[in-house]
Structures are given as C-alpha cells and as structure tokens.
TrEMBL record:
Domain of life where this protein originates: Bacteria
InterPro entries per the UniProt record, alphabetical: NAD(P)-bd_dom_sf (IPR036291), SDR_fam (IPR002347)
GO molecular function, one term: oxidoreductase activity
Gene Ontology cellular-component annotations: membrane
Entry annotated with the keyword Oxidoreductase: yes
Pfam family, one: adh_short
Keywords: Oxidoreductase
Family membership noted in the UniProt record: Belongs to the short-chain dehydrogenases/reductases (SDR) family.
Name of this protein: SDR family oxidoreductase
C-alpha cells in the first residue's frame, strides 16, 4: 500500500549540477529523496549539504550510487522503492552524457554509443519502470529537461541523443494527458554546470544562473 503522507522524489543524475540542486531543494522541503548517480562522492556531498542545513522537517536522503544504464540495478531500485513506499510522487530525470563536441564527419562511435545509451536508451527503459510507481501517487509527475541543440554544429552525438530522449518524453506526455501520470518538460536557464563547461569552456560563467536558483524556479512550476 502506498504511503500517502510521505512525498517521494526519485532524482536520476543527482550528484551535481541541476540534479543535485533539485534533490537538495526537495529534501530541504521535507521530501524523501532517492538520489541516483554514478559518483559516490557527489552523492555524499549532497547528503552532507542537506544535513548541514539543519532545517527541522527536512527529508531524508537515500543514496543510490548506480548507473542509469544498468537496467537490472535500476529495476531492483524501483522494486525497493515500491516495497518501502509504494509510490513515487516526482521523478526528476537529469542524468545525461555530454559527448565531446566534434564535426559530424569525425564522430567517435564510442561517444555516440555512450550518448545514446545514457540519454536515449536509459530513458526508454526507465519510463516503464517508474510509470507504475507514479500511478500509485495522487499526482505523480515526471520532469524532463530539454536542451534543443540537435542540428547545431559540433553537437551531433549529444544533440541527436538528447533529441531522441525528448521524443520519447513528448510521446509519453501526449499519451498520459488524460490518464496520468503528469509529464512535464522544461527548458532550464543556462547554468555554470560541468556539462556546459565542456561545451563552452571560455564563456563568462558569472552571468549564468546558479543551479540552486534555477531549481527553486523549476519546482515552483510544478504547483
């Protein structure tokens, strides 16, 4: 039976950048957060920040150091969430692989395959795992993030795989308008994340939006 009192958030890609900022904000607001990422150190730092805030009523952080492309591990995690809480109220999907920029004529197939494994295939495999958990929540919501760089020069691997991710997310969104769960797609403001630094190493990062500020704005759109 689902726990109707406790709000459960599953954040995939939670160790840094926007994912970490959203996981932190959710925990500080009393959510129970299941934080998934490959980087153990990043997850531990996230947990430390939440604990250091010392806010009464802050939610607990469940750290899940795993790769979203490991379907068996993710399936086991979703089963564990079902057994413990019976639902997911919010799924925030920020996990992404940022392949190095290159001309289309020089794409490295290892980068291409890793981009599609993380950005497209993992999304396609996770939706069937998470959808039943969202349906058990009163207002289950999935949140995706668009980055429309497909077709721009040098973004072949990243742009194509991200466009594929958005295609399946939009199909799911259209399919569930009347029956749920709610699927939201947002385009975040430019932020000084590690991913963006790989794409634009020389830009002035001082003019970019702090991920914590952007996390607050994005969570406000869910009300």
């Amino acid at each position: 039976m689902a726990d109707t009192e406790t709000r459960i958030a599953l954040v995939t890609g939670a160790s840094r950048g926007l994912g970490a900022a959203l996981a932190e904000q959710l925990a500080l607001r009393g959510w129970q957060v299941v934080a998934v990422a490959r980087t153990v150190g990043g997850l531990e730092e996230l947990d430390d920040r939440v604990k250091a805030a010392g806010l009464p009523g802050a939610g607990a952080m469940t750290l899940a150091p795993m790769d979203v492309t490991n379907e068996d591990a993710m399936r086991h995690l979703c089963l564990s969430i079902h057994q413990r809480w019976g639902k997911v109220d919010l799924w925030v999907h920020t996990a992404v692989h940022a392949a190095p920029l290159s001309p289309a004529g020089s794409i490295d197939m290892k980068d291409w395959d890793k981009s599609f494994a993380t950005n497209a295939r993992a999304t396609g495999s996770l939706i069937p795992m998470v959808e039943p958990l969202l349906r058990f929540a009163p207002n289950g919501t999935a949140l995706f993030f668009d980055d429309p760089r497909g077709g721009t020069k040098f973004f072949g691997s990243y742009g194509a795989s991200k466009a594929a991710q958005m295609a399946v997310a939009r199909s799911w969104q259209a399919e569930t308008v009347k029956i749920g769960p709610r699927v939201r797609i947002e385009t975040p403001a430019p932020m000084p994340t590690a991913t963006r630094a790989r794409f634009f190493p020389g830009e002035d990062r001082s003019v970019l939006t702090d991920p914590r500020v952007e996390a607050v704005r994005l969570l406000a759109t869910l009300n």
